[in-house]
# Entry
Amino acid sequence: MSDAPLYQLVYYSRNEVSGDEAAFAAAIHSILEASRRNNEAAGITGTLLFNAGVFAQVLEGPLPAVEDTFERIQQDERHGDVSLLVLEPIVERSFAGWAMGFVGNSSGNAERFADVGLLSGFDPKALGGQKVHAILRELTIEEETGRP
Ligand SMILES: Cc1cc2nc3c(=O)[nH]c(=O)nc-3n(C[C@H](O)[C@H](O)[C@H](O)COP(=O)(O)O)c2cc1C
# Structure
């Protein structure tokens, strides 16, 4: 990867995937497949959280790649009301190694994060970008490595 300055972008949006559980699973699969393919080529890492109501995503990488990717994501009709929480320079990646990690709806997390209403009434706007970022980082590491 290049030595270009790194930026981090955090946003959330309203999940507009409709249909039954299978349709939802297929949509998520397709989003992750495209993300991992495109992000790896563009030097983007990050993580994606979703539940029935919202998506929240962290993108990190060189600014032009982050901007191009976000531009494309915003056009996607599988979500709406895309709201930017953070776009700022970072010293190092928080999700190095994850072309796109993801956090679904696991019951352990539902319990642990009940206090912030993460999975039921997740309110990224009230939490703010830094808090959303911190939660996503913790959840991604847990879910993908299977350890807290
Ligand atoms: C919530 C959400 C997150 C997404 N995240 C990414 C992403 O990180 N990288 C990406 O390339 N596409 C992402 N996409 C998909 C893009 O909107 C778009 O469908 C895709 O980049 C098209 O890729 P393709 O032309 O290679 O098929 C996301 C879509 C949604 C709805």
Summary: DSSP finds five helices and five strands in the chain. The longest strand covers residues 79-90. The helical segments are 21-42, 63-74, 107-112, 124-127, 129-145.
